[in-house]
Fold (African queen) hypothetical protein.
Amino acid sequence: MGQEDDETTTATISNSIAKSLEVITNVASKSKNLSGPFIKALKMATMEIRESTATLLSRTRTEETRALEAANARLSKELSDLREELYNVNTPSKNRNKQ
């Protein structure tokens, strides 16, 4: 856990869940050892998980967007400060070279 988990995007999570649900669907469809009620239960559970995941991911995207906007604002301010600092460092040296 830690920073690596913070960098996991909603798209990565969504893809992981979709792949896992696809495996469940394939097992339910192709298994010869499962009877009808179990297959139906697996398919229903898969469908409910897909719907719930879509809802959660849409909420998470909103939070992720807010976090990215805050990071963008912070980085823009930092870039502006660095440009000003670079200008202040370079301006006096250019004036000294002219004299």
In short: The two ends are 58 Å apart (CA to CA).
